[in-house]
Amino acid sequence: MEAAWNAFGSDSDSSDSEDDNGVTGREEATRLMQQYNTQSTQDKQGSKTDNINSTSISFQPSFDDQKQRTASLPWPNNPPLYLGPAFVQKLTLGGGRGYTATADLPPGTCILIEEPFVKGWSEQQMGKRLGLESIQHLFDRDTAQSIVQCMEELHPTKDKVDSVYRDNSEDIASLDKIQIVDMISSADSETSHYQEVQSLIAYAKERGIVNSDGTNLNSRDINRLLLTMRYNGFDSGLYLHFSIFNHDEDPNCIKFRPSSEGTQQQHYSEARTTRFVKKGEALTLHYLENPREVSHATRRKILWDQHRFDIGDEGAFRKFLRLAEDHNKRKTAVYESELVQGSFPESNRTGTNEDSGGDPPVAFNIENSLDDLEDMVVELQAMFLSKPDEGLSMSSTSFERAAALELTVWELITAAKASLGNNNHILLSRCRRLHLDSIEILLEHCSSILDNKASTELMARFLPSARELLESQKLRLGNDHTDVARTSNDISMGIQALLSHSPKRLLSLQLEDMRSLDQCSRFEHSCRNEKERIEKLFPKDADNIIAMVKEA
Questions:
Q1: Which of 160, 278, 535, 551 has a CA 20 to 30 Å removed from the CA of 30?
Q2: SS3 of residue 39 by DSSP
């Protein structure tokens, strides 16, 4: 991101007027920034404990603790790399179990570090719902026998499925009927499915892949494995211990996916708290990874299709959020982020109620546009990365597409605001993040052909989007979420760029709490401090934690 802001040169329009003392707006902005930077340095030097993560103070990982906590997990012979202050508790919801905090936990507490038990999926499955080809992919592995036996303890467990089919139909619990019986019956009704299952049974027998009790796999086992992958799989693969996390519409933890930075390849995922969690409180994740910001109707459909649980209509959703019990401002904001023109949109398990006739719902149209525009961003990023040294001009296809994308997203935000009638709607957060990303592409890859005025105008559109995004994120996610840190940094960098090169254009935006150079400098200072504060809550110390556990 910082490289993008460095694209700015000197302001060439000389539009910053002097005050009575002959000081230009740019000089005054520079003086104020230096003043607040000096104060920030003094504040940090005056606090010797600022660089110590509060999580590490409250909870120190140890090998003995690990043995005690992981011994009760369903897979004692396949422990995670690290299990923090949490234990598995039996629940009536989800898969009948879930993690619970063993102590009061500050935001940023590391709960779990785990490598995927099955890394990734077959190429045939990319971008599609998991199917029987993924089971073939598992059976082809050298560790297939171990994988199949460990999956017996994933939801729905082998014992649960076998017991359901032993019961009389009138004795089967309604949730078991929905999540197990109906799903398997639906799959078995397809001729091609039945034939593929028989082929997999024969292939498993040929390879000597059996259940833990030594019996050969049958059609019920194959269908159970398919349900297990669909209910528990993440984009990055299949995890044993992450599968114990339950879904929440207002989760208190976040999952960081495997990634690579520079030459360092990270093969594990980690879960950390995103706010203060009380001892005994359930630890939860949001099952949707990319993107998380989708409408209630779309989430309802995805969660029903993939996990066979229903977050319900307006009344059920309010109950799911426990609004009547908690009277929590953040939960209220989560609910209100779905309102369209002041009302909660109707939906069903299959998504929107568009089949009833009439025009598709507003959110549905916006999501379709977002899906297309996000695909364009991915294509553009790949294009620029594949040809980093290609000469650009104002007429080049790459530049024209990037510029058109930014303007299209800007127009989408304007139209979405009017049609949704809700400035904090969850889809507007997604629109605004996409807008920031599209501007970053232009500043980072097209800086050589953007003149000063064009760059300044991009930033003049960037800051309002970032500012509104930050306010919505704080309402829905709280003040300590990593998304808040990222947006705070975006705002800080944007203000710095305009303060340095066109303070007059910055003031013309008339953003709240930014109507004078002094206010702009203060706000930039505040955003920068918030970004640094939150980053300290989420240190990239997973490797250190793993090493401490191994060496203790």
A1: 535
A2: helix
State how far the alpha carbon of 288 is from the alpha carbons of 97, 141, 260, in Å.
20, 28, 21
Strand partners, 340: 343
Query: CA torsion sign, 133 to 139 to 142 to 147?
Result: positive
Eight-class DSSP state of 61: -
CB of 130 closer than 8 Å to CB of 229: yes
Phi, psi (rounded to 5 degrees) for 277: -120, 130
Structure tokens at 171: 């004795």
CA geometry: angle at 318 spanning 317 and 324, to 5°? 155
What are the E-state strand segments in 268-384?
A: 269-273, 282-285, 347-348, 351-352
- Rounded Cα–Cα distance for residues 116 and 95 (Å): 19
- Token code pair at residue 122: 């077959």
Q: Residue 347 in 3-state DSSP?
A: strand
Gap between the Cα atoms of 296 and 204, Å rounded: 41
For the whole model, what pTM was predicted?
A: 0.87
The three-state (H, E, C) secondary structure of 70-83, written as one string = HCCCCCCCCCCCEE
Q: How far is it, in rounded angstroms, from Cα 123 to Cα 458?
A: 39
* pLDDT digits 0-9 by tens, 81-120: 999 999 888 876 666 889 999 999 999 999 999 999 888 7
User: DSSP code of 177?
Assistant: I
Q: Which residues contact 42 (CB under 8 A, 6 or more apart)?
A: none
Q: Are 337 and 343 in contact (CB under 8 A)?
A: no
